[in-house]
């Protein structure tokens, strides 16, 4: 058995537990002998010693770490750091890089007739990110790919920018974004006709096939070279210059050509969440004349241990506690938070009467405001050019449909894509894109991935413009409800014993789809597994209701959960009346959804087992103006 054998050890263990344990140990020993890293080699050796001593937990970990390979997909790789082919380590990164290089060389022969492909490689400040980046550079260079390595840890948007700016064939970013501290990852972009977007099928499968082929041989046989270039400071300056120019072009100007709100005071608290966004964000804010920010001191410097947060994701409960504390100390008007690789953005505003004194806008709320800003920016450009407004606003299928109302109002195109910016960034004539999980693409002509830095500058400018009128972003959300109708969004998550149970429960709903929820008839049911219903088949069920509400059901691809996204709408009466009506419908639908899932679970043979429970995500309205 090689370290790349895909056979599940658990199947054989039932009949030959001793023999299977010996095979698992042999696999781990072979891996340890070939490992490039003394730390993970020692981990494997210690694990083997524990297994030999009869430690059952160690045997389970050995089977998990060495029984299969960390799957490569459209998100590249992401997983815990550790020994074994199912973990992130130097062996897996080297093999992955060799496979990706083989793919790029073959692609280059087709696209350019044989010119050497090129790649830019970036990395964040997580544990081993720089080591993995240098392994990637050496393997790529050894395979004959022209390599440009970024000189220091930096944000994911900078790497995405570099692919387009430098005109490379591809890009790799070593990051696990907002995952737990023990994780790392390998994110892949394609240049040329793909324009710097993340990979999509069939490229992921083709790359994976190359990886599997090259991983079958010794990692020591993969050629390496130190003949690669290190990017200079001009790349960082180019990102700042191009991003700042795009931002400034969208700021409303007074007659003298100065931004209308340039003199407005605004107290801002900023947290980098122990990540790599702070330095570049400060440069962009300064270059665009935005107000200075007060940093959360404990979280401003990069630290892969993330010592002040259990989970470095601005969406997670408690992640913004230090930002709230700092904001209260300085009476901040605005909180700006990036995740560790600065591709996501959270905004929080004063909210009197709440426990923290501040509330984070939902991803849907901020997506609506930034999308509206993008539409207004295009309207101004179109009028100046004496042409019709053109372009498309886009969001993922599980994000609020409020953006569609903005597009219709401004005569723009509107697109809903599968989840992930690999799809959003590929929408033709894209003006703006977002996903409810705090991802925003405000300037797709510069970066073809979510960019928390440019989005945060737009959000600060938007808040400053409101402040110049004695208003806040809460007031702007009320304006949106008055103009487009009020959209409320909620999420119900059902925890299950296994991912298989979540898939099975989804299948039961698919086979017996509800005809109504909370007494509201289902007008249309759309199954995204149906060929042609989406860019690629997806295990998502969509229910469009007679009153304009929408329910989306999908099993999580990474956790044993079934997720339900609910969106409601009202355009009757005043803004408070619209909000109350939409949120009342939302509450009724959440109750109905839970009952529907409970009924499906109780069917004989449902396989969901005991221990399932529901949890609800933030159900704040997508354009609600209440500060509570």
UniProtKB/TrEMBL annotation:
Renumbered residue ranges of the record's region Disordered: 595-628
InterPro entries: A-D-PHexomutase_a/b/a-I, A-D-PHexomutase_a/b/a-I/II/III, A-D-PHexomutase_a/b/a-II, A-D-PHexomutase_a/b/a-III, A-D-PHexomutase_C, A-D-PHexomutase_C_sf, A-D-PHexomutase_CS, Alpha-D-phosphohexomutase_SF
Keywords per UniProt: Isomerase, Magnesium, Metal-binding, Phosphoprotein
Domain (Alpha-D-phosphohexomutase C-terminal) ranges: 532-572
Cofactor: Mg(2+)
Alpha-D-phosphohexomutase alpha/beta/alpha domain mapped to chain residues: 70-213, 261-348, 364-480
Membrane-spanning parts: none
Family, per entry: Belongs to the phosphohexose mutase family.
Protein name: Phospho-sugar mutase
Species per Swiss-Prot/TrEMBL record: Leucobacter rhizosphaerae
Higher taxonomy: Bacteria, Bacillati, Actinomycetota, Actinomycetes, Micrococcales
């Amino acid at each position: 058995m090689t370290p790349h054998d895909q056979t599940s050890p658990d199947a054989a263990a039932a009949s030959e537990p001793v023999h299977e344990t010996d095979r698992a140990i042999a696999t781990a020993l072979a891996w340890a002998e070939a490992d490039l890293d003394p730390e993970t080699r020692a981990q494997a050796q210690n694990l083997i010693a524990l297994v030999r001593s009869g430690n059952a937990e160690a045997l389970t970990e050995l089977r998990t770490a060495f029984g299969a390979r960390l799957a490569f997909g459209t998100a590249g790789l992401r997983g815990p750091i550790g020994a074994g082919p199912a973990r992130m380590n130097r062996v897996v990164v080297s093999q992955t890089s060799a496979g990706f290089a083989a793919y790029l060389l073959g692609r280059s022969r087709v696209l350019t007739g044989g010119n050497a492909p090129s790649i830019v490689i970036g990395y964040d400040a997580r544990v081993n990110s720089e080591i993995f980046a240098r392994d990637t550079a050496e393997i790529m260079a050894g395979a004959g790919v022209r390599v440009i390595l970024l000189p220091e840890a930096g944000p994911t948007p900078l790497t995405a920018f570099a692919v387009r700016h430098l005109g490379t064939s591809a890009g790799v970013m070593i990051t696990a974004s907002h995952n737990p501290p023990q994780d790392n990852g390998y994110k892949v972009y394609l240049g040329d006709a793909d324009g710097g977007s993340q990979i999509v099928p069939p490229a992921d499968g083709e790359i994976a096939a190359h990886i599997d082929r090259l991983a079958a041989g010794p990692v020591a046989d993969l050629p390496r070279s130190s003949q690669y270039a290190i990017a200079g400071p001009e790349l960082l300056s180019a990102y700042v210059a191009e991003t700042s120019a795009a931002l400034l072009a969208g700021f409303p100007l007074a007659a003298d050509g100065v931004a209308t709100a340039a003199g407005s005071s605004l107290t801002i608290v900023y947290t980098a969440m122990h990540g790599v966004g702070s330095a570049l964000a400060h440069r962009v804010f300064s270059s665009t004349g935005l107000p200075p920010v007060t940093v959360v001191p404990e979280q401003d410097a990069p630290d892969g241990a993330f010592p002040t947060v259990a989970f470095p994701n601005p969406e997670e409960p408690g992640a913004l506690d230090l930002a709230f504390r700092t904001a209260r100390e300085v009476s901040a008007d605005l909180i700006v938070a990036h995740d560790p690789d600065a591709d996501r953005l959270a905004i929080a505003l004063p909210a009197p009467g709440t426990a923290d004194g501040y509330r984070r806008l939902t991803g849907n709320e901020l997506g609506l405001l930034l999308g509206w800003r993008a539409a207004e920016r295009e309207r101004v450009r179109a009028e100046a050019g004496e042409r019709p407004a053109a372009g498309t606003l886009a969001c993922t299928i599980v994000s609020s449909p409020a953006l569609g109302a903005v597009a219709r109002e401004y005569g723009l195109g509107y697109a809903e894509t599968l989840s992930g910016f690999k799809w959003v960034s590929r929408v033709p004539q894209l003006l703006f894109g977002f996903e409810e999980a705090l991802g925003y693409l405000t300037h797709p002509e510069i970066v073809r991935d979510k960019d928390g830095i440019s989005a945060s500058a737009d959000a600060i400018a938007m808040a400053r413009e409101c402040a110049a009128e004695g208003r806040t972003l809460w007031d702007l959300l009320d304006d949106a409800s008055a103009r487009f109708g009020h959209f409320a969004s909620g999420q119900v998550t059902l925890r299950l014993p296994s991912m298989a149970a979540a898939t099975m429960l989804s299948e039961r709903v698919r086979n017996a789809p509800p005809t109504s929820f909370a007494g509201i008839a289902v007008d249309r049911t759309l199954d995204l597994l149906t060929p042609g219903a989406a860019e690629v088949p997806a295990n998502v069920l969509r229910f469009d209701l007679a009153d304009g509400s929408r329910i989306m059901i999908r099993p999580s691809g990474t956790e044993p959960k079934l997720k339900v996204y609910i969106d409601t709408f009202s355009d009757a009466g005043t803004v408070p009346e619209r909000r109350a009506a939409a949120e009342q419908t939302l509450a009724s639908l959440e109750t109905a959804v839970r009952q529907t899932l409970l009924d499906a679970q109780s069917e004989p043979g449902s396989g969901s087992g005991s221990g399932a429970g529901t949890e609800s995500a933030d159900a704040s309205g997508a354009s609600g103006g209440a500060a509570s």
